[in-house]
Specification:
Rossmann fold, alpha/beta, seven-stranded mixed sheet, globular, single chain
Length: about 240
């Protein structure tokens, strides 16, 4: 198929060497996404080409911005339909991946995907990030926290940085309009024990995308994150 060859070529251009099993996993993932999307709202993007580019390829584009070779554990905050966590797991099978979401019905879908694709060491967690980040099993336990969730960077930093262990990083997937967000989030990032490292801008098949990379340089004080809903209503600025 033309679409498949395009996706495979893009993965190769990113430095991947995709196996037939990995490519088949993405095909099945797409099929399940469309099937379940008729029952629950998972994505507004359903076109085959667009899903493969705007969801799958975008998710694994982290390889352009971050050295994944030393990463053993990732948490995807606000994973939704599994982006970027599931595509990352497919292409980096040795990484332990935790998928966090506040809606059980989305996690039901993800559990089916995990089972269908025979993915190992992938865990789904139901809850609000503000609450789960307080739990000892998750607080400062991950090499990398990723999020494609739609929220300002100040809010996302409070939700995500507490999950990251010292020496790890939080990577936020953004559109190209991130400059103002980075400036506004500077105080929040420092308060939470982070340090803005860099932004990486790239073209995704004609779409401007940005990665914001924040390193964890000191422990997050126990008062953060604040109670559920507060980081979104009153961002640290």
């Amino acid at each position: 198929m033309k679409e498949n060859s395009f996706f495979k070529e893009q993965l190769i251009s990113y430095g991947f060497d995709p196996t037939d099993d990995q490519l088949s996993s993405f095909e099945r993932y797409y099929e399940m996404l469309i099937e379940w999307n008729e029952k629950i709202n998972l994505t507004a993007i359903t076109d085959y080409n667009e899903v493969f580019v705007k969801h799958f390829l975008d998710s694994v584009s982290i390889i352009k911005a971050y050295d994944m070779s030393g990463v053993t554990s990732v948490i995807d905050v606000g994973t939704g339909a599994g982006f970027p966590g599931i595509p990352i797991k497919i292409m980096f099978p040795d990484i332990n991946v935790t998928l966090l979401d506040s809606l059980n019905k989305r996690l039901n879908f993800l559990n089916e995907v995990i089972s269908e694709l025979s993915l190992e060491n992938v865990y789904t967690v139901h809850g609000r990030a503000e609450d789960v980040a307080k739990e000892k099993d998750h607080r400062e336990k991950y090499d990398l926290c990723v999020s494609r969730a739609v929220a300002n960077l100040s809010t996302l930093s409070e939700l995500c940085i507490p999950f990251v262990k010292l020496g790890g990083s939080f990577v936020s997937y953004k559109s190209d309009k991130a400059t103002e967000e980075i400036t506004k989030a500077d105080k929040a990032i420092k308060i939470l024990g982070g340090s803005f490292k860099k932004r990486i801008d790239f073209d995704l098949d004609g779409n401007n995308r940005t990665f914001i990379i924040i390193d964890k340089i000191s422990s997050t004080t126990k008062k953060y994150p604040r109670k559920a809903g507060t980081p979104a209503k009153e961002p640290l600025q």
